[in-house]
């Protein structure tokens, strides 16, 4: 649909579009409505060849094209993608949150913040942004199509003329499109907590924190080598608590015990007490003495027997 002139349904009206609405008339400056619903799949394109004021609503896809300065005078959200075309500048006085990707001209930009020199954006771009101190924060990175043209001149074998061989290589890599609706988290039902838009069709996921890389025997170190396994501590998450669970077996370990469970006990003592024991699977009296001291320090019966209570306490550290 194309609207020439002022488009609207009155100050209290609602516009819900699922196609593309072009605002390109010579007198079009803004939508004259009460509420703009960001319907899934809907696109509004401000494509006047001249200055326009962008309605301060929530959009699904927003395109600023044509030419001139487009003024966006309020903090709102774009539920999918936002495009600022070549020859257009966006004048922002607040933050626009884009749950999809941001395209400037024909190039998709990385997930980050973009704005004019007076903004707090991480990326300053005076070609597509002007004056305003606001910024666009986009969540999704797309990779644009790259075309490489190689031209080779080869002397002809039959005469002095040259022949031209042109090879065109086109590579297109696109980040899978996400329909992340701001304020919906991982929900596909109900409504956005930030914009009020429907969460139906949302493909967003809950934010997760990457698991820390914990190397047993390195403690808080990320240099040197593990005291339990001998592997490098490079990459160990300093300050992270170890999620390693020692397998001490089901039998009570005592002086004279042998086997893999004893080796685990030796690894534990090396990691926690920096004993530098030889991990040989043989439990002797000197190690038993250390265990008794450790039990006393941890409010356990200091009997040198590594039973259920002692094993549980060791794995809790």
From TrEMBL:
Domain Peptidoglycan binding-like, chain residue ranges per copy: 258-314
Alphabetized Gene3D superfamilies for the sequence: PGBD-like superfamily/PGBD
Disordered: annotated span: 151-174
Protein name per Swiss-Prot or TrEMBL: Peptidoglycan binding-like domain-containing protein
Provenance organism: Candidatus Nomurabacteria bacterium CG_4_9_14_0_2_um_filter_32_10
């Amino acid at each position: 649909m194309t609207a020439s002139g002022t488009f609207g349904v009155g100050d209290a009206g609602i516009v819900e579009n699922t196609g593309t609405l072009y605002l390109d008339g010579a007198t079009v400056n803004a939508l004259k409505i009460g509420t703009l619903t960001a319907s899934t799949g809907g696109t509004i394109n401000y494509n006047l060849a001249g200055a326009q004021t962008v309605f301060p609503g929530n959009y699904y896809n927003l395109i600023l094209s044509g030419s001139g300065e487009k003024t966006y005078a309020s903090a709102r959200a774009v539920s999918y993608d936002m495009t600022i075309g070549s020859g257009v500048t966006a004048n922002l006085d607040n933050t626009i949150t884009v749950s999809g990707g941001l395209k400037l001209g024909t190039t998709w930009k990385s997930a980050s913040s973009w704005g004019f020199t007076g903004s707090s954006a991480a990326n300053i771009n005076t070609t597509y942004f002007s004056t305003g101190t606001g910024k666009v924060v986009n969540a999704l990175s797309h990779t644009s199509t790259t075309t490489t043209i190689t031209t080779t001149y080869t002397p002809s074998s039959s005469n002095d003329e040259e022949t031209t061989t042109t090879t065109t290589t086109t590579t297109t890599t696109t980040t899978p499109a996400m329909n992340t609706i701001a304020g919906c988290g991982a929900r596909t039902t109900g409504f956005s907590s930030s914009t009020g838009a429907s969460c139906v069709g949302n493909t967003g996921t809950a934010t997760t924190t990457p698991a820390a890389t914990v190397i047993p025997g390195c403690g808080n170190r990320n240099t040197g080598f593990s005291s339990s396994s001998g592997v490098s501590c490079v990459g160990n998450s300093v300050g992270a608590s170890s999620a390693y669970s020692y397998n001490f077996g089901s039998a009570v370990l005592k002086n004279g015990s042998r086997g893999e469970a004893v080796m685990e006990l030796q690894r534990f003592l090396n990691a926690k007490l920096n004993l530098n024991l030889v991990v040989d699977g043989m439990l002797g009296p000197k190690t038993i003495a250390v265990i008794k001291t450790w039990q006393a320090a941890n409010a356990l019966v200091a009997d040198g027997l590594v039973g259920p209570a002692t094993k549980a306490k060791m794995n809790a550290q």
